[in-house]
Design brief:
The complex is a heterodimer of chains A (114) and B (109). Chain A has no helices and 11 strands. With 114 residues, chain A is mainly beta. Chain B has 109 residues and is an all-beta fold. In chain B, 0% of the residues lie in helices and 46% in strands. Chain B starts with 8 loop residues before the first strand and ends with a strand. Classes of the chains: A mainly beta (114), B mainly beta (109).
Chain lengths: 114, 109
């Protein structure tokens, strides 16, 4: 069964450093999402991406964040200058045009900012 | 998106049916009811969705009341692996999923 994959599974970085979280969505899916979950809190929407552009973003997704689909298969989330409060699990999700909000989530990347 | 209300936690004996309720009294006509679950910090997993008819798949059944103001997710034979947080979400398609706090289901041996 096809699945969304994410790398790395765990990323440790120093405050102020740039990180790139990578996701490989399910092939032929058209809608892509990033969510995050701070330990013990709810899963929060960050950004949605369709047709090579951002379709919606949350207040969390400020100028420090960016997304890219560089090669038609990968979907990346970049945090330019990490802060302590960026420590969280980051989940990527993808959705097919025909599945009507059946989003497939990846296993997540645990980001730890020291 | 319409707001949903779920009990914070429930227990269910292994092998028995787990019935998870959800209230969504402000649902609008074009919004669907979706259920996802999250097993201990794993990525959320889609379970089922419906508009107004009852739905069943290999994982669960979804019962939606005639006025669509509430629904029940049924896991017919709960196993220990079904222990998770279950989220009831009301939204249209191709949109972000807004997760609440969900119902923490504990399946007891």
């Amino acid at each position: 069964e096809p699945e969304v994959t994410q790398t790395p599974s765990h990323q440790v970085t120093q405050m102020g450093q740039e990180v790139i979280l990578r996701c490989v969505p399910i092939s032929n899916h058209l809608y892509f999402y990033w969510y995050r979950q701070i330990l013990g809190q709810k899963v929060e929407f960050l950004v949605s991406f369709y047709n090579n552009e951002i379709s919606e973003k949350s207040e969390i997704f400020d100028d420090q964040f960016s997304v890219e689909r560089p090669d038609g298969s990968n979907f990346t989330l970049k945090i330019r200058s990490t802060k302590l409060e960026d420590s969280a699990m980051y989940f990527c999700a993808s959705e097919d045009w025909s599945s009507y909000n059946e989003q497939f989530f990846g296993p997540g990347t645990r980001l730890t900012v020291l | 998106d319409a707001k949903t209300t779920q009990p914070p936690s429930m227990d269910c004996a292994e092998g028995r049916a787990a019935n998870l309720p959800c209230n969504h009294s402000t649902i609008s006509g074009n919004e669907y009811v979706y259920w996802y679950r999250q097993i201990h910090s794993q990525g959320p997993q889609y379970i089922i969705h419906g508009l107004k008819n009852n739905e069943t798949n290999e994982m669960a059944s979804l019962i939606i009341t005639e006025d669509r103001k509430s629904s029940t997710l049924i896991l017919p034979h709960a196993t220990l692996r079904d222990t998770a947080v279950y989220y009831c979400i009301v939204t249209g398609g191709y949109q972000k999923v807004t997760f609440g706090t969900g119902t923490k289901l504990q399946v007891i041996p």
